[in-house]
Amino acid sequence: MTADRDLLDALxxxxxxxxxxxxxxxxxxxxxxxxxAAPMDLLTDSALTAPAGVRGDGGTRTLRFTGPGTTVDLxxxxxTRLGVRAIGLVHPxxxxxxxxxxxxxxxxxxxxxxxxxxxxDPLPTGPLRFVLRRPTLPDLSTGWFVQ
Amino acid sequence: MRELTNAHLVAxxxxxxxxxxxxxxxxHLPLIWSVxxxxxxxxxxxxxxCQCTWLALAxxxxxxxxxxxxxxxxxTTARHEASRVxxxxxxxxxxxxxxxxxxxxxxxxxxxxADDRAVRLWRAFAGLTDQCRDILRMVAHAPELSYQEVARxxxxxVGSLGSTRSRCLAVLRRRMDAEVRV
Lengths: 147, 182
Hints:
The structure holds two protein chains of two kinds. Chain A is α+β, with helices and mostly antiparallel strands. Helices cover 17% and strands 44% of the residues of chain A. By secondary structure, chain B is mainly alpha-helical. Chain B contains eight helices and no strands. Chain B starts with 5 loop residues before the first helix and ends with a helix. Chains A and B meet through helix 1, helix 2 and strand 11 of A and helix 2, helix 3, helix 4, helix 5 and helix 6 of B.
């Protein structure tokens, strides 16, 4: 068993040398305090259901999140490396709501219109999270995901 | 800090101890990086998956039911995210069709390996099946993971993990030895 462990330790060392962790990753992993918003569940994600290797319609991904009494549909377009365009629909719509996209070092907000539509553009590729803020109801948040 | 268990570190990080958080990251970064790269992600995408995994951990720190299983939780989270990123990026057209292709896997950059034994070990590992590489990568980087956790993360029956792990190690050892004779 010890011989196995020695070999595995040697393997770990070799893997770290051949494909080292980029040094900036440890620094980028600072603690981000959790949001107070209630978490939404991811109901569907086209990245999970679309067959791999099949090119969709221009790098479009659709996701549906649900929270208490609320659904958020999100469509993310990554047509270019310049950024991500997000359009979405909240139902039911609540007057005065805003949607906020967060990434590790930035944030962008947009109003949700009376029908429930919103539009955020441009957003960076990489980890993203969306928070729905409503005047009289608790905030709702998606989990973090990479786009 | 190094001698503390994952469960202790989670408890301290929950109270806002930054040192405990850094130790969690330091302890698991090679494993999480390796999981992301095993999904054949480019460096930039693997870096995004790592960062997303830490963000998800910070968000779930207070909700993780079994802190002792932190390593398994992190690996599962990173694997799910890496597989989604793999599918998203797989659908995109390359930006520069004429640029140099990026290798799908880290190439055998043997120049960084100082001694002959390391080179033989790397060559033998690179020639293993995907399943063997997945298992050995995980048990090499995270010795604390139980067979149950490794099996759950890799979607294998726990009953066969022990024998598969032994077989993979035996093949690895045999091929290392074979390299000597070449």
